[in-house]
């Protein structure tokens, strides 16, 4: 298991931007596909975006496509989520997740390691 620590959440007005970061403790960061999920108040956790081992393949939930960008920096053992054009309905706790994979694909489920989450609040 890899330890994950998110940061970068906060309060932003609708239309604004935030960049979330997730630092991984494990030295074999490049062996993990990474993902972001979120849980809004009163709702179940939902998939946001994921990125492959190499960082060359990404996948987004339809509602985030075009507004959110996931990326990774293997030198820093960090994955990012750039969020633009934020809406009040994006308000949620955002979680970083890692999945050990052995090929360069983008998983959307089966993540075994999770961070503690970071709160994002978008005001109207």
Characterization of the model:
- By secondary structure, the protein is mostly beta strands.
- The chain has no helices and 11 strands.
- Strands 2, 4, 5, 6, 9, 10 and 11 form a 7-stranded mixed beta sheet that branches.
- A hairpin with a 4-residue loop joins strand 7 (68-73) and strand 8.
- The protein is globular, with a radius of gyration of 13 Å.
Instruction: Count the DSSP helices.
Output: 0
**Structural class by helix and strand composition:** mainly beta
Percentage of β-strand residues: over 45%
What gap, in angstroms, lies between the N and C termini?
Answer: 38 Å
**Largest beta-sheet characterization:** 7 strands, mixed
Residue ranges: pLDDT <50 for 5 or more in a row?
none
SSE map:
Blueprint: E1 4-7, E2 10-13, E3 18-24, E4 32-39, E5 46-51, E6 58-60, E7 68-73, E8 78-83, E9 92-100, E10 113-114, E11 118-123
Parallel strand pairs: 2-11
Antiparallel strand pairs: 1-3, 3-8, 4-5, 4-9, 5-6, 7-8, 9-10, 9-11
What are the salient characteristics of this protein?
124 residues; four-stranded antiparallel sheet; mainly beta; single chain
Question: What is this structure, in a nutshell?
Answer:
This protein is an all-beta fold. It contains no helices and 11 strands. Strand 7 and strand 8 form a beta hairpin.
């Amino acid at each position: 298991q890899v330890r994950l620590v998110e940061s970068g959440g906060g309060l932003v007005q609708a239309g604004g931007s935030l960049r979330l970061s997730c630092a991984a403790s494990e030295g074999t960061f490049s062996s993990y596909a990474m993902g972001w999920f979120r849980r809004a108040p009163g709702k179940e956790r939902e998939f946001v975006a994921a990125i492959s081992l190499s960082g060359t393949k990404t996948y987004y939930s339809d509602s985030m496509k075009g507004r959110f960008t996931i990326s990774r920096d293997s030198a820093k053992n960090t994955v990012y989520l750039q969020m633009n054009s934020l809406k009040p309905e994006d308000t949620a706790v955002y979680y970083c997740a890692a999945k050990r994979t052995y090929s360069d694909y983008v998983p959307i489920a089966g993540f075994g390691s999770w961070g503690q989450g970071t709160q994002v609040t978008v005001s109207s």
